[in-house]
Specification:
heterotrimer; B: 303 residues; mainly alpha; 72% helix; C: mainly alpha; 76% helix
Chain lengths: 326, 303, 342
């Protein structure tokens, strides 16, 4: 359980626009151990998907720049890997589930072709494998995600499936061959709540069964609480707090985390929840110091000079805030 | 006390005003245009052509060669310092003739587009606005018929029927050109029609006229302008094609297509063919490049 | 099933267009000032002969009736007599059409293959020297009209560098192969006549290249932009993320998704080749329908003009229908029509 699978250190990602660069991701630290389920929580626009996509290196190279930082997978820096090593990473080690299953599936190819190709090129098999075997494995993968009538599914096109079914297909593609890390980007968000619940349960089951590590990206604290062992809270491209899930909910330290927890409406009275006033910063000219400072009710002048570092406040509980030093 | 007869347009205005988007994009994206070297090259070529065409009588070395002029002594001379593109088989300086030919070509383009574009755009707007009525169907069917005929063939047929001169060539090309604009504007008008600011304007009582010309039209304009810039090049091309076959401006007036055809008849004087050809290619290329840049500039949505 | 109703509507639409076309042509043809019968027979023909010709040509009847007779003839294949070649126009057309077909098919093949090749290369190596080279070439190539290319070729290979023939379909001394399809290359292959095949092939090269040059580069740009646009669509990122190798992504997934706009443009360009052939056939003295068309036009041969215009218009329409069918087949959403699931 102690082996570190994924270790992101001080990652910066910039996005090129006409006026300069959007400095979206600013010093992100993230770690996933073997068998661990990690959650990355943050509001829309904070850069979670960008971080996720940078891991298997599928960010469009012309527009994105990584000026600083390392992403270690099993000890090797992904950013320094050559092409074939990255291929290997993508086909054997890491799988991704995208937020919008409709966008993630190619509309002009059948489900069978797409999942068949994923299986064929994942290195669990040699390249010249019998078509029959691929078909068999495809059906098996589809069965695992509880899709009805997998044989028929193979010849269907994505537009013929419902949202929930498409998402299951995406999950099937990720689990069609053994992987060490599954990265899931808000897998149920574009679906209605009951389906979302089903998808989450399915994911949970699969991860538990195969002892795969999971990096779950979500904006919902509720989902994170159910599905993760450890949570990272992200704001405007920085990690502001991280702790074991139970510790985080019992003892939030960072003002943003506290604000998030307070924003969750409770059925047990209390009225409409409090929000967090303000908006995410302008990434073109982000604040010099702490990025949360403009919205923070505890901010002082020292918060504007330098961004705070992550400091351990109790066992396995890190916070990036100057409040911890007072 | 409110005057209830006055349509309250303030709501429509407070929503996104399409016209200001147009100018906003223009200003902001000039920066974009100027950063693309190809667009600048295109603009330079186009400006060079336009300026030299306007000032032709003053800047060409031998302006009289563009009219009836014969000088057999200097016929068939290869390019030299005196005659940048050589002389043709009856002694006229080709360079000067090319510049004058551009004049006619540009005039042709301007006239053709001045005829075809307003007609096409108007029909497209009307058809787009009155969608699913018989007017729409009639207009679009006629447009389809004209689009179904290859434009060169139709232009040829018409130009042949009329006497071969510049005016008739322009008429012929205009008749083949308007349907493209109708279709373009029709498509845009149909989609813009359903945008909220149009519905809002309608709800606050704006007249159909107002909606058509002050709300829908400005939003359709960007691709129209891009297309106009592109079309100048293409009209020059079709004009040259007609000229090549002897329709269009008659000798001794210089015309690009005619000059290429003359070159074909005097194949040993290679400069007679090559330079007018380069001129045609350069013109089309210049307008293409500029219009690409124009498109990048005008057609971005508000970010 | 949605597909067949879609096709049916398309067909109906096209028939309408062709009819509209025929009316337009008819009106144009009858607008010529002057008396067609007299024009045909010349100023010295006696009046009764002219009068008889007028009656034959229904010139004394009202316009709509003239149209009716003409259309009747057209539908049964009779386009009247050419006042230029003095033969039945339908014979002229039957003779000259295959030559143009061969030229257009050849040029079309060149166009499609190279456009796709160049486009994919430019997209794959986007922003590298390969891409920049192709894009620069295409800006240039698009601006070259086919008749200019034709003339330059004529100049180059006719006068300076005679490695390829520039006139006609066959060299003098080689007799045309027995006519099966009218396409010399095909016919000679079928009969095993390799001498004729090679000769016909050589003659095809220059005009086809001249014809296809402009559209080829235009399409290459569209192939490239369509692929670039789709290149970073999410499903491709997903496919890359699963480890599918780049070449499979390029040639299979990206290509097929980008295919539809490409096919539409290629279809249009293919149809346009027929009209571009007008000038190219003139330059290379290629005995096709476009050259015939140009000649009858320049000689104001009414029957010839209307016949050629309508035939080419119909060809245009047919090609467009075929393109629409192909697009419908390619897009599974149109093809399958029904929507199972939500």
């Amino acid at each position: 359980m102690e082996n570190i699978l994924l270790n992101i250190k001080d990652l910066h990602i910039w996005y090129r626009v006409y006026g300069g660069y959007l400095k979206i991701i600013n010093s992100v630290y993230l770690m996933v151990r073997e068998g661990e389920r990690v959650g990355l929580v943050g509001e829309s626009g904070c850069g979670k998907t960008t971080v996720m996509k940078s891991i298997p290196q599928i960010l469009p190279p012309g527009d994105f720049l990584i000026p600083k930082g390392e992403i270690y997978y099993k000890g090797k820096d992904i950013l320094k890997m050559n092409f074939s090593e990255i291929q290997r990473l993508r086909s054997r080690e890491i799988a991704m589930i995208f937020q919008d299953p409709t966008a993630a599936l190619n509309p002009v190819f059948t489900i069978g072709t797409q999942i068949g190709d994923v299986i064929r090129y994942s290195a669990a098999l040699e390249e010249n494998v019998h078509q029959e075997k691929i078909k068999m494995l495809s059906i098996k993968a589809l069965k695992e995600v509880s899709l009805p009538d997998p044989e028929r599914m193979l010849v269907n096109y994505p537009f013929q499936l419902s949202g929930g079914m498409k998402q299951r297909v995406c999950i099937a593609m990720s689990t069609s061959s053994p992987r060490n890390l599954i990265i899931a980007d808000e897998p149920g968000t574009s679906l209605d709540v009951t389906i979302q619940d089903q998808i989450m349960r399915l994911l949970n089951e699969i991860v538990k069964k195969r002892k795969t590590s999971l990096l779950l990206i979500t904006h919902s604290l509720g989902v994170a609480k159910e599905m993760t062992d450890r949570i990272y809270i992200m704001y405007a491209g920085t990690i502001v707090e991280t702790a074991l899930t139970k510790d985080l909910f019992q003892n939030p330290v960072h003002p943003y985390t506290k604000g998030l927890l307070a924003s969750v409406p409770r059925l047990s009275g209390g009225g409409i929840a409090r929000g967090i006033p303000g908006r995410i910063p302008d990434y073109l000219n982000p604040p010099q110091g702490c990025r949360f400072q403009p919205r923070c009710e505890y901010a002082t002048s020292s918060c504007t000079e330098n961004p705070p570092q992550l400091i351990e406040v109790e066992k396995d509980h890190f916070v990036a805030c100057y409040l911890t030093q007072r | 006390m409110r005057n209830s007869n006055q349509p309250n347009n303030s709501i429509a205005i407070s929503l996104v005003r399409p016209k200001s988007i147009f100018w906003h994009n223009l200003g902001k994206n000039w920066y974009k245009f100027s950063r693309n070297p190809l667009s600048i090259i295109g603009l330079v070529i186009v400006l060079a052509i336009i300026i030299s065409a306007i000032f032709a009588p003053w800047i060409t070395p031998y302006p009289e060669h563009a009219g009836p002029f014969v000088d057999f002594k200097s016929a068939g001379q290869p390019p030299s310092l005196q005659h940048l593109c050589g002389t043709d088989n009856i002694g006229r300086d080709i360079f000067s003739r090319i510049i004058f030919a551009f004049r006619d070509a540009l005039i042709m383009a301007v006239v053709v587009l001045a005829l075809a574009v307003p007609l096409g755009v108007l029909l497209g707007l009307i058809a787009g606005q009155l969608q699913s009525t018989w007017i729409d169907i009639v207009i679009m069917r006629i447009t389809d018929v004209f689009l179904g005929i290859p434009s060169l063939i139709l232009a040829l047929a018409i130009a042949v029927v009329l006497k071969p001169n510049l005016m008739n060539a322009m008429i012929a090309i205009s008749i083949t050109w308007w349907p493209w604009y109708t279709r373009l504007v029709y498509g845009m008008a149909s989609s813009v029609r359903n945008e909220y600011f149009v519905i809002a304007a309608d709800l606050t009582g704006a007249s159909k006229f107002h909606i058509l010309f002050r709300e829908i039209l400005p939003n359709c304009l960007s691709p129209v302008f891009t297309k106009i810039a592109l079309d100048v090049g293409w009209v020059i091309l079709i004009g040259a094609a007609l000229g090549f076959l002897g329709l269009g401006a008659q000798p001794p007036t210089p015309a690009l297509g005619q000059m290429v055809s003359d070159g074909a008849n005097n194949i040993t004087f290679w400069w007679m063919t090559i330079f007018p050809s380069i001129a045609i290619v350069l013109a089309v290329m210049g307008f293409n490049l500029m219009s690409d840049g124009l498109r990048d500039m005008l057609e971005t949505r508000m970010e | 099933m949605k597909l067949s109703s879609f096709l049916f509507k398309r067909l109906l639409h096209s028939i309408f267009v062709v009819f509209g076309l025929s009316i337009v042509i008819f009106i144009i043809a009858r607008v010529i000032p002057g008396d067609p019968a007299r024009l045909a027979l010349g100023p010295r023909a006696p009046e009764e002969v002219v009068q008889r010709l007028r009656q034959e040509m229904y010139l004394d009847k009202p316009l709509p009736e003239q149209y009716f007779y003409w259309i009747k003839g057209v539908l049964s294949g009779d386009f009247g007599r050419s006042l230029y070649t003095k033969r039945a126009v339908s014979v002229d057309i039957k003779e000259s059409f295959p030559a143009t077909m061969e030229l257009v098919i050849f040029a079309g093949i060149l166009m499609v293959i190279f456009a796709i090749l160049l486009g994919i290369l430019a997209a794959r190596y986007k922003d590298t020297w390969v891409d920049n080279l192709i894009r620069t070439l295409s800006y240039f190539g698009v601006a070259i009209p086919s008749f200019v290319a034709a003339i330059v070729f004529m100049l180059l290979f006719g006068s300076y560098w005679p490695i390829l023939p520039v006139l006609g379909r066959l060299s003098p001394g080689i007799s045309p192969p027995t006519r099966i399809t009218g396409l010399f290359t095909l016919d000679s292959l079928i009969k095993g006549n390799f001498v004729a095949f090679w000769d016909a092939f050589k003659h095809l090269i220059l005009p086809s290249v001249a014809l296809s040059l402009g559209p080829l580069f235009q399409e290459a740009r569209i192939v490239r932009s369509s692929m670039v646009e789709n290149m970073h669509k999410e499903f491709l990122e997903a496919e890359r993320g699963y480890g599918i190798p780049e070449r499979v992504i390029m040639f299979k997934y990206l290509f097929k998704s980008s295919l539809i706009p490409m096919v539409s443009v290629m279809g249009l360009d293919l149809a346009a080749l027929f009209s571009a052939a007008f000038l190219v056939e003139m330059v290379f003295n290629w005995p096709g329908i476009s050259r015939y068309g140009t000649l009858v036009m320049l000689n104001k041969d009414l029957n010839g003009i209307s016949a050629v215009t309508i035939v080419l218009g119909a060809v245009f329409v047919i090609v467009n229908i075929i393109v629409d069918i192909i697009v419908a087949l390619l897009d599974p959403r149109i093809r399958l029509g029904t929507n199972r699931g939500i």
